[in-house]
Amino acid sequence: MVFCLTKNSVPSRSYLLHKRSDKVCTFVCCLFMHRISTLVVFAVLFSACTSSQEPKATVSFYYWKTIFKLTDAEKEVLKDNQVDRLYIRYFDIALDEGKAIPMSPVVFDEHPQSSAIVPVVYIRNAVMLQPALDVADLATKTVDYINQINEKLAIPCQEIQIDCDWTLTSRETYFSYIEAVKKRWGKKLSATIRLHQVKYYQKAGIPPVDRGVLMYYNMGRITADSSNSIYDRETAHRYIRSLRGYPLALDVALPVFSWGIHVRNNTVIGLLNKVDDTTFGHDAHFNKKASPFFEVRENVIKIGHYFQRGDRIKIESIQPDDLQQMADDLSEEMTQQPHEIIFYDLDYFNLKNYEKEKQFFQKISHAF
Amino acid sequence: MLFSLAALATYGIVWACADGFMEYDYDSSFTPEVYVDESYTPLFYSPQDVFYSIGFDDDYVKRFNDDIVMEWSAYLKDKITKEQLQYLLLNDSAVTAINQLYNAVWKKTPAPARFSKLNLADEKIKGFIEFMHYARIVEVSSTTPAYSWYYDDGKKIPAVDPKLIVQIEKLYTDTKDTFLKNRYWFQTMKAYFYSKNNQSIVAFFEKTKTSVPQNTLYYRGMAYVAGAHYKKKNYAASNYMYSVVFDKCPEMRVVTTYNFHPQEQSDFQASLAMAKTTDEKAALWSLFGYYADEKLAIQEIYKLNPASAHLDFLVTRLVNKEEVRLNAIAFTSAEEYRKTRKEKLDKNALQIVTTIAKEEKTTKPYLWNIAAGYMNTLAGNYSIATQLFDKAEKQGPKSELAFLQLHLMRVINTLSAVTKMDSQVENKLLLDLTWLYNIKKNDATFRYQNALNWSQQYIASLYKQQQNVVLAELFDRDKKFYNTNSNLEAMKAFLERPTKSPWEQLALGIYDITLSDIYEYQAVTTAYAGKLDNAIALMERSQNGKDIELLGNPFNGKIKDCHDCDHAATQKVKYTKLTFLKKMKEMQDHVDKGEDVYNNSSLLGNAYYNMTYFGNARVFYYGAIMDQYGNYIDKDYQSILLSCNLANQYYQKAFDAATTPEQKAKCMYMMTKCERNAFYTEKYHSSNDFYSDPEVSFLAWSGFKKLKADYSNTKYYKEVINECGYFRKYLGLE
To answer: Backbone phi, then psi, for A85, in 5-degree steps?
Structure first.
């Protein structure tokens, strides 16, 4: 009990229920006690063994651009944080006139030097909702296409990862697709898991993979107000308690990207990729307002967009402290320590926000 | 490239998440199609799409197909059939035939059978075949193969071989035939663009541009040059050239708009500095207006050339943007409506449009008069608006769409000026509104739906102010109207009155609640109050409601609430809303007389249970007034539809009258269901954000405890264990 109250700033809902209502039954109390005891046991184990026995979670990155080429600065971040594995988006699978096809395949301008590459395939949910989808055929094509790329580049590969925001209606198809990929691939298979899929896993199901990667970002709606759609602790808290009961071993993906939301008359009119405070901070056409906003002082065309006087730009970014907070919150809720923390995504534009500490990403991964 | 590719792509994302697609007249009454040349249509204001009506421009490959066939057909006349020509020009699989024909001409091999009648000695045919031979080779580099499951396929398109460019350029230089020469020029341009050294196209274009006729091929070629500049990040030159093509080649208006893409303010200024003529400057301002600021663009173009056709689409965009912005402002009274429109209307826009209309220097004065009229309506200048509409009527096209548009503008203006409803105003509006409320929507072009909805709301707000609740309700249905008994009685009196004025008939025509609905609503709410006699009397007067059949037996009381099972089960007696009430009344009478109290009370308990949201007879409360068909029950009806109090009272009565432990166990369990529903209601159903995923599914209900303590020896207890998972969990059995 003490553990629960001191570790969590907000007592769990079941605790509130327990305090408030005399009607709370034995069952709910049992559940609650069970949860407490699990936590206590876990805490004991954790403090007793982890520091000396458990290897720390390693650092990795997603590479999500269509042309693979790393800058020196990016290579340095990888070196400083002892990254020896990269998750590279190989291609998307989307529908073209009703047929599932690979789109925007990655082109390698240089050979990836990391010792391990995990190809990631992003599949649009619409593909899984296609009524007469031949999942076995698609799985074969997916694996073969990955193999073609690996062979061409001589990339050894032990694992592939599938990324799909499946829904209740596509679940069955998606899971049989995963099964078929597993059969064809024969090696390790992982899949991304969104927060809502964790919370409602009894309905959403668990994909039949070896490991999942919890995507700890894109939590909210893109709005004109000051909320952050990439990460919002309060929203996250509504979901992460469910991690304790989640039956699949999870690694964690954390966001390091930023973007801008272009707002006119309190309405979102566009998304500005790869912008941050520095994009507008030194431009006299913009006034810095209370964070996270800038306001347009004078009409101007900039970065290919037209900004009209009075427009607002909301910068959504992830500060180093946010990542620390995510690590703290998650490590409290996850019953198993993740093996790997994968940052999204590898691009110097994103990484420069964290360059004060050379081994910042490792520090975050070690906080788990 | 788009001016703002990311931004526009984002619209797709943002709007994809919004609820359903609304047609354009959801918030607009100004139909731009009335006035503007078709080549501008995709550029109309369309906040939900990248391009109005078409969504995306995907006409890259086929845009000029018809023109190409037509031009070659005119050139070759009857030397080749239309079908053969079409095949060779447009069909992807014609490459083999073209090569065979090419060999037949130059290497004297046999021609394919399909073309055996073609006179290969004819100079024009020979020229055509030779041209097609080269054009098809260039095409390999200019068209993207479809994505395939072969990694290399999708990756790179081969660049045009420099040797091929030399050959084609030579053909361009040597050919005397002007038709062919022009086409070889275009093929040379294309070949340069798709070669590794695509910047060479700039020099070739500069060298040859004055000797080439300024036709569609010329502007298509120029667009390649613009593309080459873009690749080199020469944004000023690129945008300047795209604007020229936008101006001169209507077929390419959409694609050039799509590609126009200044990165920084300085790019646009530099493009302007390159523009040599007023037309070129006006074209640049047009594109600026499309992406950035219509008002500024209109002013600049008007200064340069008041007769510019680009002004037309820009003013429709300006008006559409203004009205959409203003229509989003909610109002509760007519006064508030007029005040907010007047205050929030962009005065600068009003002044610009009114001035241009007044000066009548544009080529479409009726467009400016009607636009200025509409904006003056919004500004509250109703008589000025009328004068402008009168002028527009004299000048405007005689099309049906133009007539409808002007009529609608006049209706909006007339009604906006009304501050009080009386018989005189009603008579004045009758014809116009009869027209508006009876428009048959044949196609989606004419935008009248917003005006229709607004007119109803506006008139209703006036009646409301004048305390005429019935007419206010008829014009604008208020979901809470029938919650007030005096409103309900007033509406009944109105509907039962035998004669109605034409105005009242008009209002009635747009109202979707009937007298039968009202009686049904009264009957249902009365039944929830347990007043069965009254409920029966009211239900009998509901002509359309009383005979509606319930889906399952409403007297069932099962361990599990499975509506589908109850609905599918064989039912000897099918109850209607009325016969159900009558049966309940019979049972009530028995209970009152103390006859078979246990059975009758249990059945009444079941009946009252099934009438709630939790029961199998939701149909009983389905109706036009309550309108509670979904899983969320409105706050106004939660106290009746989510309450099992009455059911519980009868179960308690049955429990008290029960003579065996089996009977008592059953009543106890039924009361537990009521207890559970009260918990669900309090914890989940009454909150706005509940969406069917309860954190706590059950508690140790007091009924569970009593069942366990007092009735564990009954058969019914075992049945509950078999059927109720929650109970098993409570007992620790799973």
So the answer is: -145, 135
